[in-house]
Amino acid sequence: MAVEVEIDVQVLKSEIKKTYASVSEEPEKDFIFPTGRPWAEDLGYPEELANVPDTAVGSFAGVANPWELGRLSPGERVLDLGSGAGTDSLVAAQMVGSDGYVTGIDMTPAMLAKARSAAAAMGAGNVEFVQGEAERLPFADASFDVVVSNGVIDLIPDKDAVFAELYRVLTPGGRMQIADVTIQNPVSEEGRRRIDLWTG
Questions:
Q1: pTM for the complete prediction?
Q2: Does 7 score more than 90 pLDDT?
Q3: What is the secondary structure of 100-119 as a DSSP string?
Q4: Under CATH, what is the fold of the domain 9-195?
Q5: Cα Rg for the chain, rounded, in angstroms?
Q6: Given 50, 108, 117, 177, which is the most exposed site by the fewest CB atoms within 10 A?
Q7: Residue pair 171/141 in contact by the 8 Å Cβ criterion
Q8: What is the domain partition of the chain in residue ranges?
């Protein structure tokens, strides 16, 4: 029998914003998860990482390497779900080239500001960053050929809503390249109530 545990989603989102604002504003701080360029390099990120400014990569907080699932093709339209400071978006922008386009979406204003600054420093004219939430994407149906995401979906309680939205905004035959955290055993009722376990 499944036990439903209520979690205050607004409190959770507020705490997630605080945590990732801190990653953006104090990237040198020790977090309970690895961050920064050395972490992205350890994950085996593609050569395009070298061109991404430290403004973005310094606040990288991904959990794995979505590029192990394949490279993007020139001209593709890409959504980076939970784009953070923009590392994956700026890697993607290089792969898709001037005929392609990348849209990063994140709910943390501090991360979006950092991503926009990094894109400007890189001269990436084929990328934009939008504030929004994964459960209600502000995009038309069939807007993207590819969705990339790194360590974001695990933070969202309503995963059904997220995947429904991703399916909606992908073109028929589109694909997802998702790196994320999964668990093998059920989380205890007490564990599901602990906001700190959701945020990091």
A1: 0.79
A2: no
A3: -EEEEEES-HHHHHHHHHHH
A4: Rossmann fold (3.40.50)
A5: 16
A6: 50
A7: no
A8: 9-195
Distances (CA, A) of 91 to 14, 70, 99: 28, 13, 15
Nearest residue to 19 via CA among 108, 87, 104: 108
Under 8 Å CB-to-CB from 6, ≥6 apart: which residues? Answer: none
Residues 144/77, Cβ–Cβ less than 8 Å: yes
58 contact partners, CB below 8 Å, separation of at least 6: 27, 28, 35, 36, 37, 85
Question: What is the Cα–Cα distance from 111 to 189, expressed in whole angstroms?
Answer: 32
Q: In 10 A of CB 193, how many CB atoms? A: 14
Tens digit of each residue's pLDDT (9 = 90 or more) over 157-175: 888 999 999 999 999 999 9
Residue pair 143/169 in contact by the 8 Å Cβ criterion: yes
Q: What is the dihedral angle through the alpha carbons of 180, 105, 52, 123, rounded to the nearest 10 degrees?
A: 160
Token code pair at residue 25: 């504003």
Each residue's pLDDT tens digit, 74-93? 999 999 999 999 999 999 99
Residue with structure tokens 């990094």? 118
Cα 137 from Cα 154, distance rounded (Å) = 17
